[in-house]
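TEACHING EXERCISE
Course module: macromolecular assemblies
Task: Read the component lines below, then compare them to the predicted structure of the full complex.
Student: A.B.
Group: 4
Components provided:
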Amino acid sequence: MLRAVMIHPSPNSGRWTATGGVRAISFHHDAPLQLSNGKRLSPLTVAYETYGQLNADRSNAILICHALTGDQFVASPNPITGRPAWWPRIVGPGRPIDTNRFFVICSNILGGCMGTTGPSSPNPQGDGAYGLQFPMITVADMVRAQAMLVEAFGVETLFCVIGGSIGGMQALQWAAAYPKRVFSCVPIAAAARHSAQNIAFYEVGRQAIMADPDWRGGAYDAAGVRPSKGLAVARMAAHVTYLSEVALRQKFDRNLQARERLSFGFDADFQVESYLRHQGQSFVDRFDANSYLYITRAVDYFDLAVDFGGVLAQAFLHSPTRFCSFGFSSDWHYPPEENRAIVRALIAAGADASYVEIDTNKGHDAFLLEEPQFEAALTGFIDAAAAARGLALGSGANAA
Amino acid sequence: MLRAVMIHPSPNSGRWTATGGVRAISFHHDAPLQLSNGKRLSPLTVAYETYGQLNADRSNAILICHALTGDQFVASPNPITGRPAWWPRIVGPGRPIDTNRFFVICSNILGGCMGTTGPSSPNPQGDGAYGLQFPMITVADMVRAQAMLVEAFGVETLFCVIGGSIGGMQALQWAAAYPKRVFSCVPIAAAARHSAQNIAFYEVGRQAIMADPDWRGGAYDAAGVRPSKGLAVARMAAHVTYLSEVALRQKFDRNLQARERLSFGFDADFQVESYLRHQGQSFVDRFDANSYLYITRAVDYFDLAVDFGGVLAQAFLHSPTRFCSFGFSSDWHYPPEENRAIVRALIAAGADASYVEIDTNKGHDAFLLEEPQFEAALTGFIDAAAAARGLALGSGANAA
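Instructor-supplied answer key:
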C-alpha cells in the first residue's frame, strides 16, 4: 500500500532545491484529503522520515508531530538543508523514544515546505506553484493527512502521538479525532487554543511578509524572487516569544557583540541583536514564506473546544488514551496555565491524564533543549505506557 | 531669553505637514547641544507646549517627559495630527498635575518628529533632511535638550520631572544629571536599563523599517516616499508588548471581527488582528520612520548605571530629590521588578523614595488609561511635595 517516492520540493522555492530529495508518499485523485473548509485537496504528497522497525503486530509505532518551522528529520540530519536532527536528545537508540524499540514516524506537516504538499507545491489547476491559490488549512487537516500516512503504513493504532508546541496541538487533535487509534498522547508546551497574544504575534509576522514587495501577492515563485526580508522579520518577531526574558538576560543581557563600546549607529551593537538577525537570515534559507503564512493561520484557527460545543472536556469524553502533558515554567508562548487547562479538561473528561511541569528558565524552546527532568519524566511515561501496551523492553523489531 | 517661534515639521515627513504649526524655540551656533557620542548638534529646535502659569519665584514648573511615540501635546489636542491630549486624566485643571497650580512644560523629545530637531529636520550640511546623517542620540542627550529649554524659561529648579515608559527614563536621567534642579521626580512604568528582550523587540521593529524598500537607506524624504509598511509592522510588534496577555484576552480573546465564522483566508478574521492593523496604519500617518529608528536606539542604549561605575545607587548618591516610582503589575515591557530595582537603588543611595505598585490588568499602557489608584497616589505625592516646596494649594500664578 505504501508507495514511497523520492521527490524534490518546488523548484523555485529556495536554495535547498538543488541539494537533495526526501522520502514521500503521494495520494492521488482516488484519495483526496478532505479539508476543514469543505474543499478537497488532491494530489496530496506527504513527506516523512522513519526510524526503527515496525514490529510484527504493528503496535510499536510512534508519530512525532513537528512544530511550526520543524521538519520530518527528527532524529537524522536534514539532507536538504544540512541541519542536524532537531530532537536528538529525545529520539534515537537508548533515548526516551528509543528507536531500538519503537517505530518512529515523523512527517512534514500539511502546508509545509519540506516535501509535503503546501503553497509552494505545483498547482494542478495552473502553471507553477499554488501560492495563495492553496486552500486554507487547519490543524485538523494536518492530522487527517498524517492519518492517511499512518494508514499507508498499515498501522491501525499508534502507540503514541507526541509533539511540542503546535506539534502538541496536533497530538491533541489526534486524540480528539481518533481516540481509538491513539494509545498514548503527549502534548508538550502546547495549548488547546491559540491565544489573542499569539494571534497578534503571528499577525505581525504575516504582515511583515506581506509588506515585502518581493512577496508579490504570494506569487513570488513565478517571479523568481523571495520575500526574504519580510520572512526574516517574521522569524525574528516569533523567535523572541520562544525565549524567556530570563533566558535572554542570562544568555545575552546587554552584552556587546564583538566590540568594546557602543557604535552609536544601527549596527548590531548588542549580542541579542546579532543573534536575532542570524535567526532571521538563516531561516529564510530553509523556509518558505507562504508556508509560514498558511501554517501560522492554521494555528490561529486552532481552538479544539469549538468543535465540541465549546467545552474542551467533551473532546476527550470516554477517551481510552493515556495522556501525559508537559508545561515549562518560563514558557510565555504557551504558558503552563494553558497546559494545565488541557489537563483539567482531560481529568474532567475522566481520561487517564498526568501533568508534569518543568521548572526551567529556557522558555518555550525548552522542550528542544537539555532538560534532564523532562527527559526522565518522558521516559517514565513512555516506558509505563509501553508496558501497558504489552511492549516489553526490547520488544522492538530488532529484538523480535 | 525665550524665543518662541512657530515652525512646521520637515516638509517631506508626512501628512501632518500641511495642517499646522507648533511652538518651538531654536538654539543656534552659539548654543550647540553636546551629544553623548562626542559630537555637537546645531542648530537645535525644541518644540514644546506649556499649560498654566509660571509663578513669581519660578518654583512651580513641572516637566513632563513623553514616551516613545508621544508628543508635547500632553493636555491639549495636537493641532497637526488632530489627536486628543495624550494624558488628559493626569494633566489639567483639577487633575493630579493641576494646571491651575503648576506651570507644565512638555517638549517633543530630541530625535522626534513633532517639531524638535530629528532625522527629518533639514541637514545644515546638505540638501534636505538629515536621514541617517543625523547623529546617534541618547536619553542623556534628550535630557540635555530639555534642560536648555527649561533654562530658556528661566527655571532653575523644576518642581517635578515626571514621565511614563521612556519618559520615566528621562526623568531618572534628569535626577541623576541635575540633582539640584529636580525637586521631585516621578518615573512611571520605567526601567533604569533597557532589557535584552526589549532590545530584541525594538530590533525587530527597526529591521521591519529597514526591510521596506521605500526606506531608501533613510533617504526616503528626498525620494518623496515613506516606508509606511515597514513602520506599520514595527508599530504592531511594539504595540503587542504594551498590552498584557490578560488585557488582550479580556478585550479580544478569539472574538471574530465583523463576521460569524472564520473566512479561511488572510483577512483580519480576529478582532485582535483588526485592532493591530489599525494601530499600525494610524501610526504611519503621525510618525516618522527615521525618528522611530533613532529613538528606539537611544532607548536600547539606556543603562543609567553605566556612567556610575555600574552601580545604579551611585547615580543618586546624596540626591536631594524626592522620588515616587510607579510600577504596574501586568506590565511586561518594563515589569514591576524593573521599577522595584530603581527604588532599591534609590533607597541604597539614601534618597527619599516611595514606590507604588498598581494592581492592574492593563499592562504597560496602564499609566495612560483610567487607573484611579494610580491617580490618587500620584495626587498624594504631588500635593505632599508641593507642600514641602512651599507651594500651598492655590499658589499658582492664577491665584497669586
